[in-house]
Amino acid sequence: MTPSKFVFKNLIRRRGRFVFTLLGIMIGMASFVTFMALGGSLKSQIERESAALGANLVVTPKGSCAYEQVSILTGEQLPTNITKDEVAAIRSIDGITAIPYLAERSAINNRPVSVMGILPEETRSFKNWQLAQGDYFPNDTADGAVLGWVLAEQFGLLPGAEVRIRGNQIKVLGVLEETGGKDDLTVFLSLPQAQRIYEQKELVSYVAVRVDRLEEVELYANKIKDKVSLGVVSDKQMRSSVLSIVGTVNITLQLIAAVAILAAAFGIVNTMMTATYERKREIGILQAMGATRSLIFRLFLFESGVYGLLGGIGGVLLGGLVAVFAMPLISQNAATSFVKGSQSSLDPVMFAGAILFSTLVAIVAGLYPAIKASKLSPVEAISYE
Amino acid sequence: MNDSVISVKGLVKEYGQGATLVKALRGVDLDIARGSFTCIVGPSGHGKSTLMHLLGGLDHATSGSVLIDGQDICQLSNKDLARLRAKKIGFVFQFFNLLQSLTAIENVQTALMLAGVSEKQQQARARELLSIVGLVEKAAAKPGQLSGGQQQRVAIARALANDPPVLLMDEPTGNLDSEAEAEVMNVLKRLNRQGKTIILVTHSHEIASSVGNLITVRDGQVEIPERIKKAS
Ligand SMILES: Nc1ncnc2c1ncn2[C@@H]1O[C@H](COP(=O)(O)OP(=O)(O)OP(=O)(O)O)[C@@H](O)[C@H]1O
Ligand SMILES: [Mg+2]
Question: Using the beta-carbon criterion (under 8 Å), do A2 and B99 form an inter-chain contact?
């Protein structure tokens, strides 16, 4: 007999209670791990998308706020109200490259996808796209679609196939090489065709701007504001406001998970308190056999710690599975859509930290019952029936 | 005095205070000779169990002294008392002596663990102890699968684990029928012949009349019976 074997035998003497207490901490930790993994991947994904945009300044629609900035990075639908004249005015400024986009949504086989209307040649050089298969748009007004890599892969679409967008059969011209961002999941159309299909006569959603001299970003932002009454944000501002929105969502989710863990911790307190009552007489017997108070304290603390250790391991496995498999399926809104097509950030250090955290929580939860158990006087414990 | 394994002087134990004060022991003097078999009898509630707890270092006396092997245990810290219980005393109580989640042999091994015996040595020693009480074949049984008499014999094996000089038994046969009681008493008498000092509380006249020394605890005091007085 060793103390750890002794603890193990006591742990499983009430199987049902053991399993249910363990499930409590496991579920709490699983939700915590899921949200942590999600949060980590959101952050890196936001930074990637912001870089993929390739812009120093973004001209956003009239009446837009921070939420629209999230949509620009995720490829969600935007209020579309920037006119042809406004685009022309922006493009007339010297020292910048300005590229307009029409951001829309469609569905292929009932799965939502982004549809982007672009100026084919300019966008291609702006984003430095390479073609993996087929052909690119032959000219700036050509009909036909160019697909992102992951999207073509997912739906098994090759050049020559047709996609149905808003009731229009559109021929797939080519497939882009993988970019690692949301472009991989987008259907690109030429701007005129996209405007026709979505009935957005000569309107665009946003304009991405790159300035020739980076140190003059502020100056050009003001120049644009002088010419058109539209919102202008720098990529840095956009990144930080999007990060703070996503961060808020994320912290809220983690708080919910923290509450779940707190509830599970009280489950452990409850189980361990019940155990000290149930084993009151056995504690007395152990003391008569020569167990010190400190040993009894440690045995009980060890027992509750095991709940945290096992619950942490189970929770990390469960949470990891959810983050990998379930999360991409439910990522339909702006805050979570970054996860699409990207690997969740399953970080071993985070997992080890989560298991350690769960064990610590369980040990803290076990403190009070363990103190109670060790404070029992031998005679009192033995006299208990 | 050299031959007394336990020596008690002016032992007082009071519970509570003020209006609820209970004087469980009111000045007990007692010497237990090494290798003796002592029976403690007396009416219910007169202090027998209280005396046993103090002899075994399970509780603190209000005043007086208890010497075990010449060492005054009333001066010991809780931790040292625990060590004393592990090495010098074997307890058996009236019922539910065994740890319910462990098998017979694991119960014995736990006592060995508490005295610091390595896990390797526990197995052989525990089997040896179970064979002393005639229960090797029940080594893997849980307490619930043992009869009352068998449970008490496992408890005796466990009490013997660290070869303590003294066994303290508080009505070990109180819950047993006469057949099981006889089994347990046979084991105890054999152990006593092999040199163990045994102190046993009982309400059974049969047991009381069959062992060497008889002590009556009445009203928190010890009455030394005639035959011992005459002998000394
Ligand atoms: N923890 C306690 N608190 C208060 N009083 C107690 C406590 N333990 C015992 N007593 C009292 O001390 C007295 C002696 O009790 P003890 O248990 O020693 O009697 P006993 O001789 O063993 O009786 P029995 O034969 O019924 O076991 C009793 O009056 C009892 O009520
Ligand atoms: Mg009693």
Answer: no
For residue A231, the cross-strand partners are: A60
- So what's the pLDDT on residue B117? 94
Nearest to B86 among A6, A285, A290 (CB): A290
Give the separation between CA A52 and CA A45, rounded to whole angstroms.
Answer: 10
pTM of the model: 0.80
- Residue A286 tokens, joined: 């152990």
Q: Which residues of chain A have pLDDT under 70?
A: 326-346
Cα(B141)–Cα(B107) distance, integer angstroms: 11
Cβ atoms of B160 and B132 within 8 Å: the answer is yes
- Does residue B178 surpass a pLDDT of 50? yes
Q: Which of A67, A90, A86 is nearest to A78 (CA)?
A: A67
Overall domain count for chain B: 1
Q: Give me chain B's average pLDDT, please.
A: 92
Q: DSSP code of A63?
A: T
- Which among B86, B97, B162 is the nearest to A285, CB-wise? B97
Domain membership flag for residue B230: no
Nearest CA in chain A to B108: A1
Tokens representing A118 are 């672009």
* Closest residue in B to A8 (Cα–Cα): B101
What distance in Å separates the CA atoms of residue A315 and residue A327, rounded to the nearest whole number?
16
Domain residues for the domain of B10 are: 4-223
Distances (CA, A) of A87 to A82, A83, A280: 7, 6, 80
Q: Which atom of ligand 1 is nearest to the CA of B220?
A: 14
Tell me what the mean pLDDT of segment B158-164 comes to: 94
Q: Taking CB atoms and an 8 Å cutoff, what residues of chain A touch B172? A: none
Q: How confident is the model at residue B232 (pLDDT cuts 50, 70, 90)?
A: very low
Positive or negative CA dihedral for A262, A263, A267, A269? positive
Percent of chain B with pLDDT over 90: 87
The CATH number of residue B58's host domain is 3.40.50.300
Give domain status of residue B232, yes or no: no
pLDDT value at B182 more than 60: yes
Does any domain span residue B138? yes
3-state SS, residue B219:
coil
The predicted-structure confidence for A252-274, as pLDDT tens digits, reads as follows: 888 988 999 999 999 999 999 99
Is B172 within 8 Å of B122 (Cβ atoms)?
A: no
- pLDDT tens figures, B21-41: 999 999 999 999 999 999 999
CB atoms within 10 A of CB A52: 16
How would you class A208 by CB atoms within 10 Å of its CB: exposed for 0-12, middle for 13-18, buried for 19 or more?
buried
Residue B156 lies in a domain: yes
Output the six-digit token pair for A358: 């769960």
Domain boundaries, chain A: 3-43+246-382, 45-242
